[in-house]
Design goal:
Elements (H helix, E strand, L loop, with lengths): L1 E9 L3 H19 L2 E6 L4 H7 L5 H9 L2 E6 L14 H11 L4 E7 L12 H4 L3 E7 L3 E11 L4 E7 L2 H16 L4 E6 L5 H14 L6 E6 H10 L6 E4 L1 H12 L11 E3 L5 E3 L18 H13 L4 H16 L2 E2 L9 E2 L2 H14 L5
Parallel strand pairs: 1-2, 1-3, 3-12, 5-10, 8-9, 8-10, 13-14
Antiparallel strand pairs: 4-5, 4-11, 6-7, 11-12
Bound molecules: nicotinamide-adenine-dinucleotide (NAD), 3-isopropylmalic acid and manganese (II) ion.
Nicotinamide-adenine-dinucleotide binds next to helix 4.
Length: 361
Amino acid sequence: MEKHIVILPGDGIGPEVTNAAKGVLETVAAKFGHNFTFETHEIGGSAIDNQGTPLPEDTVAACRKADGILLGAVGGPKWDDLPGHMRPEKGLLGIRKQLGLFANLRPVKGFDSLLHASPLKPEVVGGSDLLIVRELTGGLYFGEPSERRNNGQDVVDTLAYSRSEIERIVDQSFKSAKVRRNKLTSVDKANVLESSRMWREVVEEKKQEHPDVEVEHMLVDAAAMKLVTNPAYFDVIVTENMFGDILSDEASVLTGSLGMLPSASIRQDGLGLYEPVHGSAPDIAGQDKANPLATILSAAMMLRHSFNMSVEADEIESAVQSVLNDKYHTADLKVKDGTQVSGSELAKKVSEQMTSNDTTD
Ligand code: NAD
Ligand code: IPM
Ligand code: MN
């Protein structure tokens, strides 16, 4: 099959991890006889430096024409003092919004061989397998007004949702729950926020259409606690943009590292932007230390969700599992008696594993 992939490396470790994932995608293409073509565009800080804007028009145009988009990460200390509309992060928010990628799927499933890599007790982490469905183009990140007022004496951010924005993400979460374990936890702050009270109403309405799904509501503070005390309790969590951002970094602890968590930012027609949950990690950028597995697993999600290539996606995921079973890991993972390698070496091991598994001829 022919597929055209746009790569947005971004800043910090972004170029390292997208390069690693590109190598794995090339291995998949060679092994399965696909023709993947790649086109790279700027976003974030590098786009500010070279083109004067965090989201150049040609980047958006290329993404609109792509079959799939793979993003590294944006941001870094160099751009932290720029005004809000010129920050690298605005590029990422802009591409999500302009492409209408309202649903961010963040699966959190630990690999058995990393059970002891988490700072949490293995008996707590064991058996956890959850999916955070994060609303991605509304809520506190996008509500207007958002500004400083009265000569810098007052400031406002707005948490706004339309009913239809809540409905479509709730629909997506039911869809996800039905192909998993039929359990949905809607996380909100309905004891304080009006937006959360409407969120609850929508979930209650929609649940009538899905009698096979067990539904509950949980306040976000309690959910944060339960995620690290009894994570196996959860199947699918659906939540507002910012709550989902925070809870997913917290949930990454279950897997041993933030460098392990992939995500898919999707809309109804199948187009998706695939991005690791982590950021640009300026503290380790340029040293080939970054864990590429979150981005490699994001590429696997692209194959599954946007290209309908589930066999190829499974192949990447089981190669990652084998490499971890062999105890190869990057510095962020604490693996007892393991072999620490660089990010590019770890990605190469994943490709080698797929090649040595060759059963197609
Ligand atoms: P971060 O996720 O970049 O890093 C947090 C910690 O996790 C750091 O210690 C980092 O070294 C480590 N880490 C992250 N990814 C790793 C990987 N793949 N391998 C090994 N270690 C990894 O978060 P931060 O430091 O709070 O933010 C840095 C910059 O990244 C900020 O400018 C922020 O806005 C941006 N950011 C971007 C994205 C994105 O583009 N999707 C996401 C989060 C943060
Ligand atoms: C993420 C990041 C982004 C977000 C930032 C960089 C805008 O933290 O993808 O989780 O908050 O959505
Ligand atoms: Mn985040």
